[in-house]
Amino acid sequence: MNVAIYSQLLGSLHQPLLETLFGALSRHKASIWLHPLFAPVFNLWQQNGGYSFSNINTSGAMPSNLDFIIIIGGDGSFLKAISEFEYLHVPFVGINTGRLGFLADISPDNIDTAIDALAAGRFVVEQRPLLELQPKIDEIKHPFALNEITVHKCDSSSMIVIHAYIDDKYLASYWADGLIIATPTGSTAYSMSAGGPILSPSSQNIIITPIASHNLTVRPLVIPDYSTIKIKIESRELNYMLSLDSTSVALHNPTEIEIRKSAHNISVIKLDGHGFFSTLRNKLMWGADRRN
């Protein structure tokens, strides 16, 4: 089993997690490559008496024969990891040290069971679509988003006007704080917070959700994922913000961008009991009856 491990930041509180994880990988004789952002944390942990593990690579380029990429962190770390790895065909699996954990959904208490399942092949790989931004923007190294691409106002009280077109056909002009273009994976993220619908990850759709719209007649809209969305921005300010998941840049007004489904997918590992609907029930209390 050949594994890469990625994490942005871990502290002393996560030492038991690392001991469990590397102990489980050691039992299965895994070969491990550490992402450069995580390698210094691991080296410091070993210097302080952490688990001794010899079959590990803390330097050099990422191997081409990886079976899995293990991400330690919350959903934000999961999204960040996607932009850090170039091999999009390698499945991602997340150990949740954050709060909600829709993408990184393995709890620290279940690491042993999860590694055993990975080694035995007891999992499914879900293909999650990405959105792609056109044209390419110099400030954005990775023009893809797993959750959403969002245009929104900068720090001012003024709304922006967003003219939206679907396959070159005019849709509407949104007077709002912004507009979210979300994948089914992102339907439980920012779009949901702005009142958008929840879609199953296998749904072949794109969601358009306005943020704090001043138009009483506009609502979130679901369109087929083969559509191309063109956006033109008007604003009293010189700049507006463009966000791709966790990456944000300021762009000059006016600007025109296109958003479409990418030819690339992200492979996400799901273990037994970690399906979408069970996650809805357990994480979002879907259908929970709180009556006394």
Description:
By secondary structure, the protein is of the alpha+beta class. The chain starts with a strand and ends in a 9-residue tail after the last helix. The strands form three sheets. A six-stranded antiparallel beta sheet has the order 7-6-17-14-9-10, covered by helices on one side. A six-stranded antiparallel beta sheet has the order 13-12-11-8-15-16, with no helix packed on it. The chain is 18% helix and 36% strand. The mean pLDDT is 86. The chain is globular. It has six helices and 17 strands. The longest helix has 13 residues, at 15-27. The chain has helices spanning 15-27, 39-47, 75-84, 111-120, 190-193, 276-283, and strands spanning 2-6, 31-34, 56-57, 68-73, 92-96, 124-134, 144-145, 148-153, 160-166, 169-176, 178-182, 205-211, 221-224, 229-235, 239-244, 247-252, 256-270.
Strand line-up in the sheet with most strands: 7-6-17-14-9-10
Helical content stands at 10-25%
What is the residue-mean pLDDT, rounded to a whole number? 86
Q: How many distinct helices? A: 6
Our Rg estimate from Cα atoms comes to 21 Å
What class would the helix/strand composition place it in? alpha+beta
Q: What is the straight-line distance between the termini?
A: 50 Å
Unreliably modeled segments: none
How many strands in all?
Answer: 17
What is the overall shape?
Answer: globular
How much beta, percentage-wise? 35-45%
- List the secondary-structure elements in sequence, H or E: EHEHEEHEHEEEEEEHEEEEEEH
Reported for the largest beta sheet, the result is: 6 strands, antiparallel
